[in-house]
Amino acid sequence: MTTMTYKHWRDVPQRSWRWKDFSPAEIACRGSGSLRINEEALDKLQALRDRLGKPLIVRSAYRSPAHNRAVGGAARSKHLDGTAFDIAMTNHDPVAFEAAARAVGFKGFGFYPRSGFMHIDLGPARQWGERFPVREAAFAMETPPAREALA
Ligand SMILES: [Zn+2]
Question: Model confidence over 109-143: pLDDT tens digits?
């Protein structure tokens, strides 16, 4: 598997980009625009997108060392290798999302329910954070009308 690093995502040759539902800008460092392409990680991210059949909103993917420090990332964060992604749960059921991510080969999971995203990475296998609360139905439950005795 190949890892390539670019000073800026605009430098990525179009022919070398094969992940159809993602763009170099989405995967690039939010602080510097630089990009490390880990092909294995992006293949799994695309496989996850294909499996779920709906968009993945990427909050964070590759981070440069300076940006990782700026956002308080762990010293050996997998974001530094380009093998970690933080995905918004806005449009996903977290339980289904986690199961699909495990099925395509992600092994590290961080749960951030208050911030509304899940961290996934290539491993080692581990997990941290509080699980997302089980979601209630989006609408009120249907109940039979009360028998009201009107005066
Ligand atoms: Zn993360």
Answer: 999 999 999 999 999 999 999 998 887 654 455 77
135 lies in a domain?
no
Contact 85, 58 (CB under 8 A): yes
Asked if residue 30 belongs to a domain, the reply is yes
Q: How many domains does the chain have?
A: 1
Q: Provide the domain limits for residue 10.
A: 3-128
Measure 70 CA to ligand 1 centroid, in angstroms. 14
Within-domain flag for 137: no
> 142 C-alpha to center of ligand 1: Å?
39
Q: How far apart, in whole angstroms, are the C-alpha atoms of residue 39 and residue 45? A: 10
The structure's pTM equals 0.88
